[in-house]
Automatic annotation (TrEMBL):
Residues 455-513 form the PucR C-terminal helix-turn-helix domain. Gene3D superfamilies: PucR C-terminal helix-turn-helix domain (1.10.10.2840). This is Helix-turn-helix domain-containing protein. InterPro entries: CdaR-like_regulators (IPR051448), PucR_C-HTH_dom (IPR025736), PucR_C-HTH_sf (IPR042070).
Amino acid sequence: MRLYNYDTKLLLNMQILVDNLEEDYNISFFCRWHDEQRLTGASIYYGQKELSSDLVYVAKAEVYARFPITEKGICRVIVGKLKEKPDALLCSVIELEESVCWESVFNYIQEIFIRYASWSQKLEDILNSGGGLHELCVSAMDFFQNPLYIHDNNFYVLAMPTWVVGMGNIQVDENSGNIFFSQEKIQKLQKSPAYIQTLSTRGAHIWEPSYGTHRMLYTNIWTSDHHYCGRFLLHELNRSLKPGDFLMVNHFATFLRMAFDRNLFKRNDVTSFEKIILKLIKGEAIEQRYLVKRLEMLGWELTHEYICLKIEIQKESKEILRHQKICSSVNIILKDALSISVENGALTICNLTLSQYSRTELPVKLEGLCREMNLTMGCSNHFYDFTEVGEYSRQAEKAIQLGLQRKPKEYFFYFSDYVLDYIIGHFTEEFSIRSICSDSILALVEIDRQKGTEYMETLASYFKNGGNQTPTANDLFIHRSTLMYRLERIQKLIGIDLEDSDTRLFIQIAMRLLGYLN
């Protein structure tokens, strides 16, 4: 398919199949013969006469022995030992151990073609839906499983989904928010003959700077009028680079060139979708049809089930772009989630309709990240209208504030566990605690202080046990008849009726405010 005079059709070759097969299979032999990118899919070989050079054929070794292929250039995957000499076949061959099930190999190869085609289609959909460099890089990071970024010809970072230790020294302008290389690094590059030579290259190449600790796979970005406008770099940090990565970087660069040609980027601009979320948090009006369009790019819908997670940093850190690292780490752990950098941490919106994890499983999945980076998380209630994300993000933030007051050593807090704390806290915004509590309950506190009675402790245990007298008596280590007498005495002393539901509720609130009930 051609978009804007660029060929975006993705074809595979045998090297790409080897890169993927070797992750789960033991490849005993691989012979490359004119291994162009021309493969569109896989087929089972059973001796048929009509064969296509665009397909790779899979079968057991005895099938190939029984029905030899005389046509040159036909790619094949053979399960079992090959008897004929490889150099006599005039084709690319992948040979696997005989113990492997050939049907499972065929299905595995089909999945490879589907995965690569799906990624290419996703890149195309991003551009067709108005997405830009950031969205393209997020998709590429998931595909390549290595950190990456794009900078322009002035070394300003245009897109960087994540930053990890080892990616080099970068700086953030506190006023503009622009991300750029340190002047020291820029000067090193500009004075390096080896680097200057790379500025004229086309296609994917390895760059291993003398001052660095790892390799990078890069490609220069040239516009349709042959103007150098920047560079895409893939860092070899999470997994080793493979030969097929060169081909995929070249394919990815096609979409980057289209984005540059169509000006689908702004220097250090957060994604337009992130801007929408920030507006929703601030309570600003947005155009709903545009929001729906941006959600569709993620495969989300306006009325899916969502929750918000507020992630806060509890200790100061000098680590560069720590907020971005939090966002990328959460996105890796929670596939159906979107994280954006906010004050003192990050906000994550989880799509529970699509997620493989339930709300109660989140603490387990995020525990390691919280401990490693010393983070605290608050979780909102569920909501089914994405436009309400602002209100529920505040719930998540409030969950942390209230949770740390009661359980300062915990790291994960649900707002639903602290709703009563939130409600009661609003009682004291205008009046003091003592002025809100009734004279009767304060009188009971004074009686306990002067006479050494335990009336407040008795009421606290009574309410904790839901008004059930037997467990209350057990907790207080008194006889049930003693408890009944004490409750009657309390009611007479301060003039209340514990049978009245409104009275019980008010007394419980007053006791909670005074610290007698947790």
